[in-house]
């Protein structure tokens, strides 16, 4: 990796810095001016990709360049709400429109972008962007300046005669800039033009003495020594060098803190430059310093820094006042167990404790299915807290203690659970569940939940179902089974549950405290619906066995149910179709419905007494959505509702980032995603037309990748 240069300006006006050159200056208000932001009126904002990415079937290598309109930029980064995580851009290479995570986009000023675009190799382009010195020399170059240029892998002297675009009548918003150089001395006759390119003259020179080259093939000759001596300021004995070789340094790249080790320190004019090797799990030594070994390690894994230059890395701290020291989970010391029980986090407390990097549950070795499930079930709700305390007959107390004291309570107290604690639970599940792969292999959430709830903790089944008058069936998660419905283009969860219950002739024997529903999809290979709308409330009134029902026409107590009417498009899209006697007679008098065969409902005794129509209101039983587990390919994430408003959603990924290579560790991240509310409020027709790639932030994952919905009844949770 090329070392980056950090520049500290001592005097003169602050100029706009390149993204990798951070110029620090004390301002009147004491604030630090850093980063590169689009200027008002630029028209377009330009970016370079710092990492590879895919978009559909397309692959874009790091070093590709793209742009978006200033209006699009401002729409994604308003002042009155949190910024978006993704940005829709147009690639400069093929003019395709894609949506890219802003974390891999580095802003580039237009005057810089035109030079970078001339470098055809994406890898070289990114390296020169990061190195900065050659690029800055190109920006300062002037006509008549002497240079050395590369022609046929040889270096020849020349003079700059033209700087600019050589592509005419192009439809692209940005044309690459090249240097037109007149070759001199040994370079004469080694060129390919007389200053013309494709019939257009840009400068005049002898035949075969002109070349047009990108800046990376031009070596910009420094000012002659005698002139430099005149300009060089006299040394000041009291001048303080800002950084010494070996110092740990920090600098900002587009408001992101970057750290590294100072490799070289030098001065040009009034500016000090520091070559920095970034801290990306790469050092500069094997334990040797100035010819003497102080310790031994792998090559380029060791660093020597001053003690006063060391400080905790705030990027990987769980909170400002936390006493958790983060390191690889295998090296972590056993922390004292949290013996005090903490309630679930809601509203502002949830945001304060859970949001940020190194928050949530730290993933390790295919644990995402378990991380996402545990975070969903215990971070912001207590509906299944009985798993933590209740002495079930078959309960394995060791597993229960690990779950409560090493995972749930630390999560609710500090907002962070280390991977070691989850691995401890996985080891116990492997032993108790007689399955050797729980510590290593990928699993599905329902496999984990069924194992820990049924076989290990032995809790009472969450659901009791009955089909067609047969014996009751117990289960912990409900899988939706249904035939493909042509009229359901973008269904909501309410519709899917009703269709599934009706097609299987199922009823709930009692109101569940927790209703975990698996969507009609099978792993990453098959999804019945491209989008599913989350039902924030699930009305289960009509799904209950022997419960009073409401006539869907007049609202009186229903006595008959008709499964054929459920499919009739004349009725509402949701809700089973049940009627009182008089409404059923009227509905089925229509010639299209005369062949229907309604079934009689069981009406509770207290609803048998005759009363004026509509005077007996049937109580509605509703459950509220508290979490959604999602999977796009093979990685589970979760959305958790932490407050009452539609905007109160947070997104959790246990492996969102990583520190180090195979010897490093994963960084879990919890972010707020209020953009979800925008799509929840859309009409179904409008939502159906939304392209997933165009949806804001992480909303696409909630609507398109849902795997499991979790609902709760707070009323019933008090009794279970």
TrEMBL record:
Location relative to the cell: Cell membrane; Cytoplasm, Cytoskeleton, Cilium basal body; Cytoplasm, Cytoskeleton, Microtubule organizing center, Centrosome; Cytoplasm, Cytoskeleton, Spindle
Entry superkingdom: Eukaryota
UniProt domain USP: residue ranges: 359-714
PROSITE patterns recorded: CAP_GLY_2, USP_1, USP_3
Any Pfam family the entry gives: CAP_GLY
Catalytic reaction(s) noted: Thiol-dependent hydrolysis of ester, thioester, amide, peptide and isopeptide bonds formed by the C-terminal Gly of ubiquitin (a 76-residue protein attached to proteins as an intracellular targeting signal)
Residues of the CAP-Gly domain: 169-214
Enzyme class per UniProt: hydrolase
Topology in the lipid bilayer: Peripheral membrane protein
Enzyme Commission numbers on file: 3.4.19.12
Keywords annotated in UniProt: Cell membrane, Cell projection, Cytoplasm, Hydrolase, Immunity, Innate immunity, Membrane, Metal-binding, Microtubule, Phosphoprotein, Protease, Thiol protease, Ubl conjugation, Ubl conjugation pathway, Wnt signaling pathway, Zinc
Coiled coil: none
Entry similarity comment: Belongs to the peptidase C19 family.
Binding partners and assembly: Interacts (via CAP-Gly domain) with IKBKG/NEMO (via proline-rich C-terminal region). Interacts with TRAF2 and TRIP. Interacts with PLK1, DVL1, DVL3, MAVS, TBK1, IKKE and RIGI. Interacts (via CAP-Gly domain) with microtubules. Interacts with HDAC6 and BCL3. Interacts with MAP3K7. Identified in a complex with TRAF6 and SQSTM1. Interacts with OPTN and SQSTM1. Interacts with CEP350. Interacts with RNF31; the interaction is indirect and is mediated via SPATA2.
PANTHER family: 40S RIBOSOMAL PROTEIN S3A
Name of the molecule in the record: Ubiquitin carboxyl-terminal hydrolase CYLD
Originating organism: Apteryx mantelli
């Amino acid at each position: 990796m090329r070392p980056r240069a950090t520049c500290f300006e001592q005097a003169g006006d602050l100029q706009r810095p390149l993204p990798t050159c951070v110029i620090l200056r004390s301002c009147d208000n004491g604030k630090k001016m850093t980063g590169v932001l689009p200027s008002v009126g630029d028209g377009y904002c330009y970016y370079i990709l710092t990492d590879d990415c895919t978009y559909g079937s397309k692959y874009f290598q790091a070093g590709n360049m793209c742009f978006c309109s200033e209006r699009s930029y401002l729409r994604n980064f308003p002042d009155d709400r949190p910024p978006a995580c993704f940005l829709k851009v147009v690639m400069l290479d093929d003019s395709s429109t894609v949506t890219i995570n802003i974390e891999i986009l580095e802003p580039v000023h237009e005057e810089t972008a035109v030079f970078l675009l001339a470098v055809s190799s994406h890898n070289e382009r990114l390296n020169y962007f990061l190195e900065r010195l050659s690029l800055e020399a190109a920006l300062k170059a002037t006509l008549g300046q002497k240079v050395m240029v590369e022609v046929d892998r040889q270096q020849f002297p020349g003079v700059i005669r033209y700087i600019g675009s050589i592509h005419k009548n192009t439809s692209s918003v940005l044309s690459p800039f090249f240097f037109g150089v007149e070759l001199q001395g040994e370079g004469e006759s080694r060129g390919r033009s007389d200053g013309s390119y494709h019939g257009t003259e840009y400068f005049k020179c002898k035949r075969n003495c002109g070349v047009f080259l990108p800046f990376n093939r031009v070596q910009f000759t420094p000012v002659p020594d005698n002139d430099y001596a005149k300009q060089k300021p006299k040394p000041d004995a009291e001048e303080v060098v800002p950084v010494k070789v070996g110092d740990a340094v920090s600098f900002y790249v587009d408001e992101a803190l970057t750290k590294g080790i100072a490799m070289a320190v030098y001065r040009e004019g009034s500016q000090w430059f520091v070559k920095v090797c970034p801290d990306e799990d790469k050092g500069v030594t094997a334990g040797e310093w100035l010819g003497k070994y102080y310790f031994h390690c792998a090559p380029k894994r060791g660093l020597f820094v001053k003690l006063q230059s060391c400080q905790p890395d705030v990027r990987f701290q769980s909170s400002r006042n936390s006493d958790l020291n983060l390191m690889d989970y295998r090296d972590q010391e056993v922390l004292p167990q949290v013996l005090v029980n903490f309630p679930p986090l809601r509203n502002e407390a949830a945001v304060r404790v859970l949001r940020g990097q190194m928050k949530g549950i730290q993933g390790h070795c295919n644990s995402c299915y378990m991380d996402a499930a545990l975070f969903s079930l215990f971070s912001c709700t207590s509906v299944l807290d009985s798993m933590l305390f209740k002495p079930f007959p078959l309960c394995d107390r060791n597993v229960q203690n690990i779950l409560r004291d090493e995972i749930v309570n630390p999560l609710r107290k500090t907002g962070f659970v280390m991977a070691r604690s989850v691995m401890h639970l996985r080891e116990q599940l492997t032993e108790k569940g007689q399955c050797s792969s729980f510590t290593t292999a990928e699993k599905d959430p329902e496999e984990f939940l069924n194992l820990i709830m049924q076989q290990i903790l032995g809790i009472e089944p969450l659901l009791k179902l009955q089909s067609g008058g047969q014996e009751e069936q117990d289960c912990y998660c409900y899988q939706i089974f249904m035939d493909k419905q042509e009229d359901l283009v973008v269904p909501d969860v309410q519709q899917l549950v009703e269709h599934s219950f009706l097609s299987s002739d199922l009823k709930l024997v009692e109101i569940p405290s927790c209703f975990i529903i698996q969507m009609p999809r099978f792993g990453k290979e098959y999804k019945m619906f491209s989008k599913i709308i989350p039902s924030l409330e699930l009305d289960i009134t009509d799904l209950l066995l022997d419960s009073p029902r409401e006539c869907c026409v007049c609202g009186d107590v229903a006595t008959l149910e008709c499964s054929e009417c459920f499919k009739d498009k004349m009725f509402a899209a949701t809700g089973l179709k049940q009627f009182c006697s008089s409404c059923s007679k009227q509905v089925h008098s229509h010639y299209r419905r005369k062949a229907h065969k309604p079934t009689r409902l069981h009406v509770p005794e207290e609803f048998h007494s005759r009363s004026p129509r509509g005077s007996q209101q049937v109580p509605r039983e509703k459950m509220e959505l508290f979490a959604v587990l999602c999977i796009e390919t093979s990685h589970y994430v979760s959305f958790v509702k932490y407050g009452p408003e539609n905007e109160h959603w947070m997104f959790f990924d246990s492996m969102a980032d990583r520190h180090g290579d195979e010897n490093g560790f994963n960084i879990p991240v919890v972010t707020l995603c209020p953009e979800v509310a925008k799509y929840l409020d859309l009409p179904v027709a409008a939502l159906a037309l939304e392209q997933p790639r165009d949806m804001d932030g992480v909303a696409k994952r909630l609507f398109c990748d849902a795997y499991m919905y979790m609902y709760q009844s707070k009323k019933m949770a008090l009794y279970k």
